[in-house]
Design a protein that fits this description.
The chain is mainly alpha-helical and 155 residues long. The chain is 66% helix and 5% strand. It has helices at 6-22, 28-31, 42-47, 49-59, 61-64, 76-89, 92-111, 115-118, 131-153, and strands at 121-124, 127-130. It has a two-stranded antiparallel sheet with strand order 1-2. β1 and β2 form a beta hairpin. α1 (6-22) packs antiparallel against α7, α1 (6-22) runs parallel beside α9 and α4 runs parallel beside α7 (92-111). The chain is globular and about 45 Å long. It starts with 5 loop residues before the first helix and ends with a helix. The mean pLDDT is 92.
Length: 155
């Protein structure tokens, strides 16, 4: 499901919580298995999503509806490297718990947006984008990674 509207975005975030919880049932071997040779493990793929949810919560959403410039984003490679390292070091339970905590906060935040706020324009770099288009991009990122994980664990 590629989202087309705010209700589908909210539904995706709700379903992502259930799907991530279901990963608690996979084995440690599956959790640590690379999604492809030479690529991140399932743990690293899932673990890198929480810091980005935190970034959206703390450095994007507060600026969407005020006439202020968005803070500069972090270096993507650096942030992903740190997140992957953390995911390798912590337990599956910790990674899943962190995802659920941050994704639940993100879900609460987007559920509070009015229809007008979803259509709000803001500027990222030199581009203008609506809030809904921004979140469609985030959901598609999730779906890409969820598909990679499902191909490995066959759940």
């Amino acid at each position: 499901m590629f989202p087309e509207n705010n209700k589908q975005i909210i539904q995706h975030y709700e379903l992502s919580l259930y799907w991530i919880k279901s990963l608690s049932d996979i084995s440690e071997v599956q959790w640590r298995m690379p999604i492809e040779p030479g690529k991140w493990s399932v743990a690293e793929v899932i673990g890198h999503l929480s810091p980005w949810d935190e970034f959206v919560l703390n450095h994007r959403i507060p600026f969407f509806f005020v006439k202020k410039c968005l803070p500069k984003g972090p270096d993507v490679a650096w942030m992903n490297t740190i997140a992957a390292k953390k995911s390798r070091e912590q337990s599956m339970e910790e990674t899943i718990k962190n995802f659920i905590a941050t994704r639940s906060q993100l879900l609460q935040a987007v559920q509070s947006f009015s229809d007008e706020q979803w259509q709000q324009l803001f500027t990222v770099g030199q581009s203008e984008i609506t809030v809904i288009a921004y979140f469609i991009g985030l959901v598609n990122h999730d779906l890409h990674h969820f598909s990679q994980v499902q191909n490995v664990i066959h759940v």
